[in-house]
């Protein structure tokens, strides 16, 4: 089974890119972020014609997340990260898909830091850690994936010295990610490729993609049950070079039917 995550940076504007990638890569489950579309503007027909059933949580102009599946309809569990009834941003959706608990998230950027946006990011991370701890109590396989807007280590960022004050790399944010991992989650990419330079995002400016001046901010966290089934993981880097594409590339894992 192949599970992928992709920050599409506007699903309707990038729909040809998304559909081409779905056809070429054929993931079984897909988590999307930054739909940038209200609920009623999600391209359900085009996604269905591509062979996928979908649930989504849209928001006009900003945010928005979705879970797509070609192996059975996603059964929605929640579309709000628990812990703050006043949070109206569409950044979270959780479902059961073919026996796997799938959490798709778009964690806040947090810039400028310090400031209210950074405080919101830290608070969101705290709530995520609380919910993740509850998810670890489940008996079955669980994956938490999406755009975390954090580079966990120096290896995950081009020229880390330039990012020290950025909300994606500040020590408070990296500490939150570290504490999340230490609950018992496995960073799938680093599990299989612990020392390699791997990026998932390249800015549109300053020719970043051509210079490979990137960041690794899109992550797969697996619970112990799913980690034992992990076979492969990677980034479809070439998609970032397509015309009118997102500034992110799709990231994917392959899992087996049984433990290794």
UniProtKB/TrEMBL annotation:
Q: Which Gene3D superfamilies match?
A: Endonuclease/exonuclease/phosphatase
Work out whether the entry's keyword set contains DNA repair: no
Q: Which cofactor does it need?
A: Mg(2+)
A single Pfam family it belongs to is: Exo_endo_phos
Q: Which UniProt keywords apply?
A: Hydrolase, Magnesium, Metal-binding
**Gene Ontology MF: a single term:** double-stranded DNA 3'-5' DNA exonuclease activity
- Keyword match Metal-binding: yes
Q: Which domain of life is it from?
A: Bacteria
- Record-listed E.C. numbers: 3.1.11.2
Endonuclease/exonuclease/phosphatase domain span: 4-248
Family recorded in the similarity comment: Belongs to the DNA repair enzymes AP/ExoA family.
Q: What is this protein called?
A: Exodeoxyribonuclease III
Which species does this protein come from?
Paradesertivirga mongoliensis
Q: What is the lineage of its organism?
A: Bacteria, Pseudomonadati, Bacteroidota, Sphingobacteriia, Sphingobacteriales
Give the gene name.
Answer: xth
